[in-house]
Amino acid sequence: MKIVRNLFLAFAVLSCVATQVRGMEDFLLAKARGSRMVERFFCAGRGKARRCELREIKYSSEYACRDGRSSVLREIKYYFKHECRDGSSVEVTITGEGNLNLWAKDLTAFVEFKPCDKNLTTEDLQSILQRIIADGMSENVIELYLFGNSLTELPAEIGGLINLRKLVLYYNQLTPEAIANILRLLPQLEELNLSCNQLTELPEEIGRPASLRKLDLSCNRLTQEAIANIPRLLPQLEELNLSCNQLTELLSGMAELRSLRKLNLSSNQLISVGIANILRWLPQELEELKLSWNNLTFLPEEIGGLTSLRTLNLSWNKLRELPAEIYNLEKLTTFSIISNNLLRELPAEIGPMVGNSRCIGLYSVPRRSSGIERSARPKTR
User: Collapsing DSSP states into helix, strand and coil, what is residue 276?
Assistant: First the structure.
């Protein structure tokens, strides 16, 4: 019972923290809560050779996450249990929305950020994909989640997922060569997550998917030289996450990313002088910029040119002051400058922003006198 309870807890945490990840955990949670379902079994053979497998589960239910949100359980369109080479098993599901979830089997360890000693191997993944293709279900896979498995390569069968649009590969051990092989097989990808793979370089094939719009390269070991080709290879990018790398600046080629709307540069080694150049190159249409956990001592006045910004995160830096040009950011709704211990006061021009923003993290930094009454400590994310 304790093992079952821990599994349910792991499933619930994953469902609430990463709501985009759905699979057999929803089925188990719904079943535990007594939700009404219609289960369809597909049988083949006769007599003792007759074999029945659960292939389709339809249900509608809601459950509450700890943060107060609720999540609607979704239809499972396809299901089977795969017996892995290490003697364990993994539940393989494809939801009605096309999600195929094959994360680390030791979910409790993964949620608690412990090393997982029971991961899906490349051979296991190959067998699973072969069966999905043989059963004629490959066209139903739109999103594939393979995080936390310590994979070093993916089988060629992944190319059979002709409608795959989103591929999540964080917490693996993929090499640039392995990534190149993957991208040659998946030119239709629109979203790729390669976070936490210890990458120090990127292959030219990163630009192979001409429709790629979202790229997550966070928590690797990339330098500005390693990412220099991204603008040339992926000028259509709309969202780019480069947080937790080894960037000290960005090269001028970033100006080619004219479609960029969200940029995350948090937890690098950026300094204020380098940020000034970055702000000059970024498109005016940028809506989200995250610069927390860097070495910024001042914010360049060029920030005022990003008039479409809705989210700006400057927390955990060494800021001494903010420029008055920040008042130009009239569309800003999320503004965080938490834990900038050298910041003694805010410009008077920022006053109206405090009233208009829904999520401003200031802690107790005072503003210069502007006739605006100081409010209680605002909420932070």
Answer: helix
Tell me how far apart the alpha carbons of residues 173 and 219 are, in angstroms, rounded to a whole number. 12
Mean pLDDT of the chain: 76
Query: Do 286 and 308 form a contact (C-beta atoms < 8 A)?
Result: yes
Q: For 8, list phi and psi in degrees, rounded to 5.
A: -60, -40
User: Comparing C-alpha atoms, which of 227, 224, 228 is closest to residue 216?
Assistant: 227
pLDDT at 364: 38
Q: CA–CA separation, 342 vs 132, rounded Å?
A: 57
Give the whole-angstrom CA distance, residue 145 versus residue 134: 20
The C-alpha atoms of residue 54 and residue 44 are separated, in whole angstroms, by 12
Q: Which residue has the tokens 């709309």?
A: 238
Contact 220, 241 (CB under 8 A): no
The confidence score (pLDDT) of residue 363 equals 45
Residue type for 83, please?
E
When mean pLDDT is compared across 39-53, 83-97, 164-178, the lowest value belongs to 39-53
DSSP 307: T
For residue 348, the one-letter residue type is A
Return the half-sphere exposure (C-beta side, CA atoms, 13 A cut-off) of residue 90. 24
Quick check: 380 and 336 in contact, CB under 8 A? yes
CB neighbourhood size of 338 (10 A): 17
The predicted structure's pLDDT at residue 350: 63
Whole-prediction pTM? 0.76
What DSSP state is assigned to residue 298? B
Which uninterrupted H or E stretch holds 108? helix 107-111
Amino acid at 13: V
Top-confidence residue, 208 or 33: 208
Whether the pLDDT of residue 121 is over 70: the answer is yes
pLDDT tens-digit series, residues 169-190: 999 999 999 999 999 999 999 9
User: What ranges make up the beta strands (E) of 170-273?
Assistant: 191-193, 214-216, 239-241, 262-264
* DSSP, res 366: P
Q: Report residue 291: phi and psi, to 5°.
A: -130, 20
CA pair distance 245, 65, nearest whole angstrom = 32
